Amino acid sequence: QVQLVESGGGTVQAGGSLRLSCATSGSIFSVNVMGWYRQAPGKQRELVATISSGGSANYAGSVKDRFTISRDNAQNTVYLQMNSLKPEDTAVYYCYANLQTRIGLNQNYWGQGTQVTVSS
C-alpha cells in the first residue's frame, strides 16, 4: 500500500511564505512525476506545479516566480516553497505522485490535502 502524507499548511498573512512537504511510503519501486494541486472552495482542483524525476519543473502561470517545487529522489519526497502568498492562494493543497509499485503497477496517488489560508 502506498501513502502520500502532506505537512506544512497553515495560516499566513499576505506576502508571507509557507513550505509544504509530501512524503511517500509503501511498496514503491520508482516515482515518476510528483506535484501539487489545489482546490479552493467552489472551484475545481487545479494544477500548481509538477516536477519530473529528472528535476524538470512546470508551473501554473498564477504561481510562477512565487512558488518553487523541488524533490528529494532518495526520500521520494516533494516540496513546495510558496513565497509572496496572496489571498487567492487560499485552498486545500494536494500532493500527487505517479509511481510504479513493487508489483509493477503504474498508478496515480494523492495525499489527503493540507489547508493553506492567506489572510489579507
Query: Whole-number radius of gyration?
Result: 14 Å
Shape: elongated
Mean pLDDT: 96
Secondary structure tally, helices: 0
pLDDT < 50 runs, ≥5 residues:
none
What is the tally of beta strands? Answer: 11
Structure classification: mainly beta
Describe what this molecule looks like in 3D.
There is one protein chain. By secondary structure, the chain is mostly beta strands. The protein has no helices and eleven strands. The strands form two sheets. Strands 2, 4, 5, 6, 9, 10 and 11 form a seven-stranded mixed sheet that branches. Strands 1-3-8-7 form a four-stranded antiparallel sheet, with no helix packed on it.
Summary of the model, kept short:
The chain has 120 residues and is mostly beta strands. It has no helices and 11 strands.
Helices and strands, with pairings:
Blueprint: E1 2-7, E2 10-13, E3 18-26, E4 28-39, E5 46-51, E6 57-59, E7 67-72, E8 77-82, E9 91-101, E10 106-110, E11 114-119
Highlighted features:
120 residues, mainly beta, seven-stranded mixed sheet
